[in-house]
Amino acid sequence: MSRDPDHDREATTRAAAHWHALHREGALSPAQHAEFARWLTASPRHLREYLAISHLAGELGLALREAATGHDAAPAQAGKVVSLRPPRPAAPPASRPPRRRLRQGLRALAATAACAAALLWAWPRSYTYASPHGEHLAVQLPDRSRVHLDSGTELRVTLDPLRRKVELRRGRASFEVAEQRRPFVVEAGGLRVRDIGTTFDVDLRAHETRIAVLEGRVQVWNPGSADAAPGLLADLGAGQRARVAHADRQVETRTEDAGTMTAWMRGELVFLDEPLADVAEALNRHNTRRIAVEDASAAALRLSGRLQVSDLDSFGDFLAAQPTLHVVVGEDEIRVGSAPAQAGAPSL
Fold first, then answer.
1. Residue 88 in domain
2. CATH number of the domain that 325 lies in?
3. What is the DSSP letter of 84?
4. Statement to judge: residues 314 and 244 lie in one domain
5. Domain ranges, residue 36
6. Residue 150 neighbours by CB distance under 10 Å
7. Pairing outcome for strands 217-222 and 208-215
8. Pairing relation of β-strands 164-176 and 146-149?
């Protein structure tokens, strides 16, 4: 079973930060030196992450020194005080033994790197976006990615120097991901959708999550649960859609054209051989007037069609024309159940 690369990289970076913190605390014991050497040489990725933190530490240290010395601040009363006596030449710094200077330099580097590691994990910034019921919302994230939120959608975005994570709490969103080295991951319904440079759509439903790819590629990962082992569930390219059941992580894939995938952005609902329960759930996301499906037989009726999400009258008329359904149309609700003669009959 494949492993999640984001989890592996996060563990490696945490280990690199741990070793920097140990250097800051003081000299490592011989056993710690040996363990650090084994970890550093176990994988080229370990060395890259360690050097990346060291580089970041250097940049942070420079910024902190500039702030401390006030290089950006103008001198007080500049231009009003004139020196009448030439400044004395600065005394040359006292020489220090080379070993002492080397030890002090290493301590300073370790302390700065440890500070950088601490700031690295304290830095994450989070943003929450929500679209009102019945309205769409388009936002640009701080990393320049664009997100289109469907009606009644809420998501939380967390950015740090190593990754970009989106938690889709409810609803549906389409992501146009800005190209960066940091991975872009969407978590929804217990799944992890990892972007491989693309534009894609994630739709969180009551019993399943749907992922559609317009451009590029995404991978759908299962982090692991009581019912399913962790691993790669789907690798989707442009024009592919996957439906992943929440209960057992069963995956159903199919191809779709871009127009069908983006119909919801135009206020349209396209359903292809879908149960009435799923169609009603999608329509209820956009309307205050709700569709209530009253029994399992009616909920399982398979439908195909296209309509405006706000046109509930036409949809109610269509349902009322079905001989297997009994429909009661009200001002606030459309109740749909099986026709009396069809109660308990198998779904169509």
1. no
2. 3.55.50.30
3. S
4. no
5. 1-64+109-122
6. 23
7. unpaired
8. antiparallel
Partners of 171 in beta bridges:
204
Nearest to 208 by CA among 264, 255, 236, 247: 247
Q: What token pair was written down for 10?
A: 């996060």
Provide the greatest CA pair distance for the chain: 109
**Average pLDDT, rounded, for the chain:** 79
* pLDDT: which is higher, 110 or 168: 168
Query: What DSSP designation does 340 have?
Result: G
Asked if the structure places residue 347 within a domain, the reply is no
How many other C-beta atoms are found inside a 10 Å radius of the C-beta of residue 91? 6
* 343: number of Cβ within 10 Å: 13
For residue 125, give the H/E element and its range: strand 125-130
**Per-residue pLDDT tens over the stretch 72-112:** 433 334 344 444 444 555 555 555 555 665 555 556 555 55
Strands 154-159 and 146-149: unpaired
Structural domain includes residue 291: yes
Number of domains the chain is built from: 3
Tokens of 98: 């080379």
3-state secondary structure of 261: helix
Q: How far apart are CA 197 and CA 177, in angstroms?
A: 7
Residue 105, SS3? helix
Query: Phi then psi for 30, rounded to 5 degrees?
Result: -55, -40
The answer to whether residue 73 is domain-embedded is: no
What is the C-alpha separation between 4 and 322, in angstroms, rounded? Answer: 47
Give the span between the Cα atoms of 159 and 41, in whole angstroms.
30
Q: Are 182 and 295 contained in the same domain?
A: no
For residues 125 and 263, what is the distance between their CA atoms, to the nearest angstrom?
32
- Last residue of one domain, picked from the residues 193, 227, 261: 261
Name the residue type at position 216: G
Helices 44-69 and 30-42: angle between axes, nearest 10 degrees: 110
pTM of the model: 0.64
For the record, the structure tokens of 186 come out as 């969407």
The closest of 171, 173, 172, 183 to 143, measured between CA atoms, is 183
Going by their DSSP bridges, the two strands 290-293 and 333-338 should be labelled as parallel
Q: CA 296, CA 277: separation in Å to the nearest integer?
A: 9
